Amino acid sequence: MSKKTKLIVLLATALSTLLLTIGLPSVISHPVVAQSNPKLLVSAAASLKEVLEEIKPLYQQSKGNINISYNFGSSGALQQQIEQGAPTDIFISAAKKQVDALEQKGLVVTGTRNIIAKNRLVLVVPKNVVGITSFYNLKDSNVKKIAIGEPRSVPAGEYGQQVLEKLKIWSGIKSKLVFANNVRQVLASVESGNADAGLVYKTDAKISNQVKIVVAADEKYHSAIIYPLVVIKRSKNVDAAKEFSQFLSSDQSKAVLKKYGFILP
After folding, report:
1. Is the distance from CB of 68 to CB of 148 less than 8 angstroms?
2. How does DSSP classify residue 119?
3. 177-220: per-residue pLDDT in tens?
4. Given Cys at both, which of 42, 96, 97, 187 links 90, Cβ 3.0 to 4.6 Å?
């Protein structure tokens, strides 16, 4: 072996030793993490706000490394966001129509659809109002404004329109209707007195001490009020989304749903 070759070998050996001496502790002290903490974004009907916020810490007790965020709104608006590419992992609608549309467009993970709850539609008025005892009273001259969800995008509004049309009073009170972007806006309008009456879910009325229920709509007058859940195909954490979806049908989650007045499927 020539002197030049020996020098190269010695230099290479020295460099390798130096790299190991400097780099090895760093590798041991800071191991490579195979996967960061899973993050889930759940887009859900506004009427599920309190339920899902209470369920979140229950789930994280056993899955402390998961980060769950919520996006609440009208089911129709959330559907459009997903269709336009919004980064959503799970979608929970207050009607089947929006989920049907996403399935037809191939945006849903097959086999993940599940109904987690049901609800009732009720007519509410401010707590101190008297004289309104039925839907037919909405035609009375003292009722000036009636809050209702926008039927094209808010399931509660669509259910409400179905009921009012069945009772043959929709056209007679149409000029009084004030349309809201989601069911919680309807509730807020009645609570503030900006509307003399409103159509919301029974669970919405239950969380408010400023409104009272006049009457529940006959279920034969509207489509079934159900909350279907699906995992979105674009999700980067499909397995984590499936796992959280399953938890939403667990006994713990059912107890929370029942607490807030939802009907278990």
Report:
1. no
2. -
3. 999 999 999 999 999 999 999 999 999 999 999 999 999 999 99
4. 42
